[in-house]
């Protein structure tokens, strides 16, 4: 007796599987483009009562790095940082320093704790984001007063809350990245 | 050893993978050192990288501009929906408001009349300054503790660093860096911004210093009994020659020991178009920048500005 053909097994989550391979362009382009775009987007909306918007570029970098280790090379912080500095309003060099340091720190965490769940990832991202935002405040070149630090608190909380959403977006983008589009003969 | 940047996560015995991992670590340490160096340079000399920033700000200008237009469109849409929902209550409120406005209008006419009479008495004329450029605020540093805004006009429309930027309500800030078609504006709420102000109505002079969180510290110059009250409006005093006197800056919300905390009148979040005005007293600015040892203006007046000052 011949069974019904199992068409479903030939289709993965990202399209037809047989005879298809991932596009090498998308594999690299999607993470790089989303982080660069997020860094640029944080300069666009006007909400200037205080530093309110979470550092989008940085959070996207964190999410990509934590969800997909190996996608971003360890030195990529220098490129993302340079780009972020152009739009963030911080003195040039601050993001180069902090993004690179972040990449190194996550590398060390990766070696020490290779197996993590989302909760641990979130905790790591929250910890790093808090340190990052306080560090950006310290090196921003503004007079460091109590009200200035108080004004950073909403941004801190927002960044911590925003991480799961950004991680969700990144996971969807990762599906796009892994789409099997290229036909192999 | 874990290895990122490669498809292979474990380098194992592969010499190539081990070298790759090592190179990665060397690069990231170099990047951190580069970051520290660049950061030090830009903190010591903040204008060092303005050219680079300007280049990219120019390049992304069309996108920012389209977004700014879309944003104001979106705000209008939300406003109209909100207006529809609140129509009944608003109608009643407006009727009451119109009545009050009629009375105020009559009062204003009287004041205007008096004003004209007094001005004629003094022989003063109202001189309206023609703005250098009118443009949209296309963006701001909304995730940084520094308060910068990006303006959709640059050197090609005559904008130069130092020029005051104002909206129809009041001072927004001043131009910090100008590139070809965009410029960076230091908002008055930035913690590095200090602005000479006086209280509208009398001559209580003070400095308005940004706090970085959207508010402004008013620091009185003459210490003593704090004469300020909640609701006092501060306007530019014209001292320093940068800002034209009499433009609204901030309104006092809370008193402190040596002044007050004030809210800005022209909130950049609510402003759409802003005007860049010429420097009020360029000569005074030049004078302030000239060392005491040098004579001011001799090159221009005596030699016609052609000769270089002789080297000592």
Task: Return the domain count of chain A.
Answer: 1
Radius of gyration of chain A (Å) = 20 Å
Low-pLDDT stretches of chain A are none
DSSP, total strands of chain B = 12
Please provide the count of β strands of chain A. 4
Explain this structure to me?
The complex is a heterodimer of chains A (185) and B (312). Chain A is mostly helical and 185 residues long. In chain A, 62% of the residues lie in helices and 6% in strands. Chain A has one domain (10-183). Chain A is built from 6 helices and 4 strands. In chain A, strands 1-2 form a two-stranded antiparallel ribbon. A two-stranded antiparallel ribbon of chain A has the order 3-4. In chain A, helix 1 (24-41) runs antiparallel to helix 6 (146-177), helix 2 crosses helix 6 and helix 5 packs across helix 6 (146-177). Chain A starts with 10 loop residues before the first strand and ends with a strand. Chain B has a 6-stranded antiparallel beta barrel. In chain B, strands 6-7-8-11-10-9 form a 6-stranded antiparallel beta barrel. In chain B, 36% of the residues lie in helices and 22% in strands. Chain B starts with 14 loop residues before the first helix and ends in an 11-residue tail after the last helix. Among the domains of chain B are: 86-126; 133-280, Rod shape-determining protein MreC, domain 1 (Thrombin, subunit H), CATH 2.40.10. Chain B is globular and about 90 Å long. Chain B has 6 helices and 12 strands. Classes of the chains: A mainly alpha (185), B alpha+beta (312). Chains A and B meet through helix 3, helix 4, helix 5 and helix 6 of A and helix 1, helix 2, helix 3, strand 1 and strand 2 of B.
